[in-house]
């Protein structure tokens, strides 16, 4: 870091400081090297089939254009208006969707409610301070599609005059990624493509960590309540009148820990909670008296801010495996009778509708449910 610039001054500067005034020179510099030259260490991580790509800090559009030329659907995020205008001009023939947006929040990207197969951050991460990097990593993890990858480069060396950059190590970035459910696919160090003295780079490839499953305990009670409330808010926002925030507190989940099982899915063994479910060994309220030949799945919940697509199916398969391991031969569950989308979700997973029943949910109201069953 340039030691003539204090930490306080760096924090006060905008992350794009210096880029607008130097946009034309920077665009010429960016375009003087090819996408392949810059990203040679991580080219093997690129999707081979047409994919959805998010290029954050797209600059002159060099990388976005190269990816669009390969058939990918590219969203280019560039917060500096001058660079954004130059990128549109230089690569006018490329099929690129340009967005005025920035880390750590990326509100414009989030408004599109999309997930991406590839997220590219070239020479961006060191412009964020520690708190912004933490918030940014959490958001980026939530934008990755199932099987998606993130390619990120870190600049090391002196800070150009008038710019805001922070020293960021590969070790810190890997640790932060792991905290947010990502794992390392690739890590390499290399020289600067422009031959600048004292400048070097780290290239990282990241992806969602595999789901890990564990039994919940008392320490998880607040997280379970929060997960259920967040799922309830999502339902209400999407016109599903089934769960309400605040209906179930710690005492409900404490009782389920005592009387049945509650399972949690995390991204990696130490990563964030992606979802949870309850496993009961009888359910007379919905199914009436039954032989002890089934397990009953309730409150299959995912945190959509964290969980990759497909997490619900993976959790359901894990619940089925747990039931089968006890020697029971059926997995049973129910859903609100009017929720056709959820019923179809379970039918796609191999469940058969067994009928409908009025159920006392124990929260002061009775409602009709569809009963579903799957042989194991």
Question: How would you summarize the topology of this molecule?
Answer:
Elements: H1 7-12, H2 23-31, H3 35-38, E1 52-56, H4 62-69, E2 73-77, H5 81-90, E3 96-99, H6 107-110, E4 116-121, H7 130-143, E5 144-156, H8 170-179, E6 182-191, E7 200-208, E8 211-215, H9 221-237, H10 250-259, E9 261-267, E10 273-280, H11 284-287, E11 294-302, H12 311-325, E12 330-336, H13 340-348, E13 352-360, E14 366-375
Parallel strand pairs: 1-2, 1-4, 2-3, 4-5, 11-12
Antiparallel strand pairs: 5-7, 6-7, 8-9, 9-10, 10-11, 12-14, 13-14
Helix pairs in contact: 2-5
Can you characterise this structure?
This protein has about 375 residues and is α/β, with parallel strands linked by helices. It is built from 13 helices and 14 strands. The strands form 2 sheets. Strands 3-2-1-4-5-7-6 form a 7-stranded mixed sheet, with helices on both faces. It has a 7-stranded mixed sheet with strand order 8-9-10-11-12-14-13, with helices on both faces. β1, α4 and β2 form a beta-alpha-beta unit. The longest helix has 17 residues, at about 220-235. The model has no long low-confidence stretch (mean pLDDT about 90).
């Amino acid at each position: 870091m340039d030691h003539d610039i204090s930490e306080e001054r760096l924090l006060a500067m905008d992350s794009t400081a210096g880029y607008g005034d130097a946009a034309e020179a920077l665009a010429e510099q960016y375009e003087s090297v090819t996408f392949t030259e810059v990203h040679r260490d991580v080219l093997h991580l690129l999707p081979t089939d047409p994919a959805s790509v998010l290029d954050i800090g797209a600059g002159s559009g060099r990388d976005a254009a190269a990816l669009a030329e390969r058939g990918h659907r590219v969203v280019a995020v560039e917060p500096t208006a001058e660079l954004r205008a130059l990128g549109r001009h230089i690569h006018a023939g490329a099929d690129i969707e340009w967005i005025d947006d920035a880390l750590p929040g990326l509100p414009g990207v989030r408004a599109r409610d999309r997930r991406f197969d590839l997220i590219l951050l070239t020479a961006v991460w060191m412009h964020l301070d520690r708190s912004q990097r933490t918030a940014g990593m959490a958001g980026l993890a939530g934008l990755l599609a199932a099987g998606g990858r993130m390619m990120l480069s870190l600049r090391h060396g002196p800070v150009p005059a008038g710019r805001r950059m922070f020293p960021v190590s590969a070790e810190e970035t890997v640790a932060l990624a792991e905290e947010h459910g990502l794992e390392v696919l690739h890590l390499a160090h290399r020289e600067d493509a422009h031959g600048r003295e004292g400048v070097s780079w780290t290239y990282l490839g990241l992806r969602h960590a595999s789901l890990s499953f564990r039994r919940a305990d008392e320490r998880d009670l607040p997280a379970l309540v929060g997960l259920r409330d967040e799922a309830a808010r999502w339902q209400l926002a999407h016109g599903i009148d089934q769960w309400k925030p605040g209906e179930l507190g710690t005492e409900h989940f404490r009782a389920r820990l005592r009387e049945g099982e509650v399972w949690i899915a995390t991204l990696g063994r130490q990563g964030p909670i992606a979802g949870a479910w309850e496993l009961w060994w009888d359910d007379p309220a919905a199914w009436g008296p039954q032989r002890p030949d089934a397990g009953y799945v309730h409150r299959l919940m995912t945190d959509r801010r964290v969980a990759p697509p497909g997490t619900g199916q993976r959790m359901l398969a894990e619940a089925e495996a747990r039931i089968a391991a006890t020697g029971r031969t059926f997995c049973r569950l129910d859903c609100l009778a009017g929720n056709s989308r959820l019923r179809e979700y379970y039918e796609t997973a191999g469940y058969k509708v067994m009928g409908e029943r009025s159920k006392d949910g124990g929260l002061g109201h009775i409602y009709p449910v569809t009963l579903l069953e799957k042989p194991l």
